[in-house]
Specification:
2 copies of one chain form a homodimer. Chain A contains 5 helices and 10 strands. By secondary structure, chain A is an alpha+beta fold. The longest helix of chain A is centred in the first third of the chain and has 18 residues. Chains A and B meet through helix 2 and helix 4 of A and helix 2 and helix 4 of B.
Chain lengths: 269, 269
């Protein structure tokens, strides 16, 4: 699915039209920062936070009858297309927090789902935005979300006016002459239940491209990723990097040195 | 610390001598098998289970005043020396279970801590055994556990008669002519808050040595690991493998192609 299609989903925000919408459609999921989930600075790994976000998204959908389990019966599934996370501070070891999630808008083929990552006192560590498509598992084509279950999904929209997400939207990538910085083989622990390289593992592999000083002396401020196509166990992944400025790098991941699998933007403060 | 010292800790089982011992010293921690924590067969990754075990151990110690936080004040810390996990079945996606943990015995320099990994109905997926040393953070030498806090730790011992752990003890490793099968660099996501390569990451890297057919057509039945010394960010890890029989392999991990970091035994059914 091309970035052009994805970008269109930012154009308009349909308003909720039925009862049950609004703040009642924001769910909150607690998290705790476990000792093995922090990096050498004592801050949570971004991949772990990403996992919490995806779990929160899954639970929120499931509670409303839009979970993977229900969808699989009609041969549909959710596919994550974009994820952008921006943090003022990363949660630290032993801290308790929560993740709020809600659907900001639904455009034909995509939903925009937002997240607030909150401290115990309710202040924000940061926010995240994501874009999801619903695909038909047989054709692998995106489906019109408004045609599914009589447009039921619109009941769960919480507009930007009702619940803001104060970080920039997903950016565009423009790779000119990125440099190959690493090539890796994929193994057993990279693969999810669908046989695909796990969305979270890409985040880990991308951050592993950076020297430890970036995490020790600086702070990961914003991370964006655009998932383009699936890769599979045994695929070789090549990582190409392009410097935007001294604190911002774009990374393109290609499989078997041809097709683009995903693109990411990493910004340190 | 040599394996000989570790083996001694299996010799005798001191009996609890004060009140408060027995079944009341078995704690139970719930777990849930998240979608991103399962492999391509839908079973939980062993590294994730290992993480749950270590969390259960940490919480159990902490509740009794023997947690890392309390110990750090006197410059002591727990070091995991051995971990052996044996499973009849691996928990599957969306299943709920619990981990029981208790201290089976304390020998001068080591504690034997056991685990039961239970289904929702109380039957066992499997069991695990572990050996921990308490070290002085300055000298890095093991401490006599019976001298610490007036031997308080003996209050928490639950003997084998009271609570059995029906799996074999930790085995011995005898490497003769193991073959080098992979060498990897270590990166940001391998390292824990102490700057060491994370105990769980070794498990992931070791299982990544096996072809997917092992996990798809067989089942991981038993995994043992003996931690010998720490490795650090930037160390290169080399993996040497030795076949015991067609379903059992020993793996030795060396850093910078010299010192042995850990040894593992992997048995498929």
């Amino acid at each position: 699915m091309s970035e052009d299609i994805i970008q269109k989903s930012n154009v308009a925000t349909p308003r909720p039209t039925k009862e049950g919408q609004g703040r009642g459609c924001v769910d909150s999921y607690p998290f705790y920062v476990e000792p093995f989930h922090v990096d050498m600075t004592g801050r949570m790994f971004l991949g772990i936070l990403g996992n919490h976000l995806l779990n929160a998204a899954g639970n929120h959908s499931q509670r409303r009858g839009w979970g993977i389990g229900a969808l699989n019966e009609t041969h549909h599934t959710w596919v994550l297309s974009r994820l952008s996370i921006e943090l003022e501070e990363m949660p630290r070891q032993y801290e308790h927090g929560s993740i709020e999630t809600w659907v900001e808008s639904v455009i034909k083929l995509f939903t925009n789902r937002n997240f607030a990552i909150l401290r115990e006192d309710g202040t924000a560590y940061g926010y995240a935005r994501s874009i999801w498509a619903m695909i038909d598992m047989e054709t692998r084509r995106p489906c019109d979300l408004l045609n599914l279950y009589d447009g039921d999904i619109l009941n769960y929209v919480v507009s930007e006016d009702e619940k803001p997400c104060p970080i920039a939207g997903h950016g565009r990538f423009r790779f000119r002459d990125p440099q190959l910085v690493r090539t890796i083989d994929t193994h057993y622990s990279d693969v999810d239940i669908n046989g695909h390289i796990n969305s979270i593992k890409y985040i880990e592999h991308i951050l592993d491209l950076f020297p430890i000083e970036r995490f020790r002396d600086q702070r990961l401020q914003r991370f964006e990723i655009a998932y383009k196509t699936e890769s599979y166990l045994g695929d070789q992944l090549s990582f190409y990097m392009q410097e935007i400025d001294e604190n911002e790098m774009d990374v393109e991941v290609r499989k078997n040195d041809s097709e683009v699998v995903c693109q990411a933007k990493v910004r340190f403060n």
